[in-house]
Amino acid sequence: MIEQLEPIGGLLAGVFGLLIGSFLNVCIYRLPNDLSVVKPRSYCPKCETPIAWHDNIPVVSYFLLRGACRHCGQPIPARYVLVELLTGLLFFSIVQVLGLTPLAFKYVLLSALLVGLAFSDLEERILPDEFTLGGTLAGLLLSFLIPMDPDVVGIFAMLFGVHWDPRAISVAESVVGALLPSGLLWTCGYLYEKVRHREGLGFGDVKMLMMIGAFLGTRGTVLTLLIASIVGTVAGLVFILISRKDMATYELPLGTYMALAAIIGILMGQSIFAWYASLL
Fold first, then answer.
1. Are residue 234 and residue 280 in the same domain, yes or no?
2. What's the CA gap between 47 and 24, in Å, rounded?
């Protein structure tokens, strides 16, 4: 049955991603405001009219409604269609490359969490625990059910070898990947606060990195931090110059950049590691 679905697996994943993206929009709006994502059903934030099913079709309804509520004319933020399209594209790309495999399931779950966190941080500067801590637990569990490849895991395998059972290596790498990079990030934030006497890093960023480490292990998490630092620094400086913000008080949405970096790691991590190895 799976073999029969392989040729259209990417398209099916893309459609499913659009639906998940629609749910992520609910989470992005409600979780930072401590609202239930289960009930009530979707409604217009301005007039509070429940949205009919035919006005809630991912992407399609946004354009049919011309980006506004049918009842009160309140503009619908472009973020809604962007999240749906991005999630659908990520699901399609991951399954297109990996096929309908357990590893693809693991990565589409991580990518959905990353999209939700990226836009929550960008809009509200909040990284909900439901995504970070819940995602960490999911990553730890999946490290046992869907083991990491012993040949591509990070510091645990390098220090202790890969002679253990693959599941044991995977779980150990997931735990180390969750705790070590996030612990180092927390230490940097703590020292910054002691030296500068103001907070320079939110604990939500630490929990988000812990979640990424649980899924990707140490190598993937270090790669995420490296890419996020470079992209965040460049993008932050450009934004500050264009908007003329005060560099001393501007709050960098690190979670958004970590999400982007982790997505790059999911899609291109092996190519990046192979390129790096060729330089040695």
1. yes
2. 21
